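Memo to structure team: turn this sequence into C-alpha cells by end of day. - J.P.
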Amino acid sequence: MIECFKDNAAYVLVMERLPHVTDLNDFLNDRGSLSEDDCRGIVHQLANALLRCHENEIVHRDIKLENILINPHTHDVTLIDFGCGTKLTVIPELQLSGTRVYYPPEWYTEGCYFGDRLDIWGLGIVLYMMVEGRRPFNNEEEIVNCKVYHSLDRKFSKSYRSLIKGLLHKDQEKRPTLEDILAHPWLCHYMQEPRVRRGLFSSLFKRFRR
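Reply from structure team:
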C-alpha cells in the first residue's frame, strides 16, 4: 500500500501495481488444487496480513480467491481490494456485501456478524478451496448446515482437518483467532519470517483511522 486518504464519501487506498502476479482464482484454475505444503506458506502470509489489519482495527470483510494476488514463481501473496473493509468494532455488523458463497452462517441465522470472525471464515473458505479444489458450500442451505466434507480421493493430514474444522465452525465464537491459527500444529512449524511490512501498515492505518 502506497497511500491512503479520506474524501467526503469513502476512504481511498492507493496500492502498488505488482508485476508478474495473477489472482489466486486464476492460479488454481491453471494449476488445480495445491499440496498442503504449498498452502502453508500462503496461509501463513494471509494470516499475518490479517493480523496486522486487525491490530490496526481494520477488517477486510471480502476474503476470497479473487482478492488475493500470487506470484506463481515465488508464491508471495498480496491481499487486495479493501472496498468492503471497515473499522473493527466490538458490536455486531448489520450490513454485509462481498460475495455470497463466502457469507458466514451467522449472517443467515442471526442477521449479523463480527468482522474479524468473518475474515477468519473467509480464510477457511480460501484454504479449503486451495487444498481440495472446490467450494465447501455452494448455497445458503449448505452454509447454514455447515457440514464440511473432504474429498475421498485424497488423504489429508489430521492437523489440516483440525484447522479447517475450526476456521469453518458454525459458531463464530468458537473460530480460532489469528494468533491461534499461526500457532496451530498445521502452521506452527512454518517458521518463515512474515512478509508484511509492519511499519508501513502501522503508519498508514493510523491515518486511515482518523
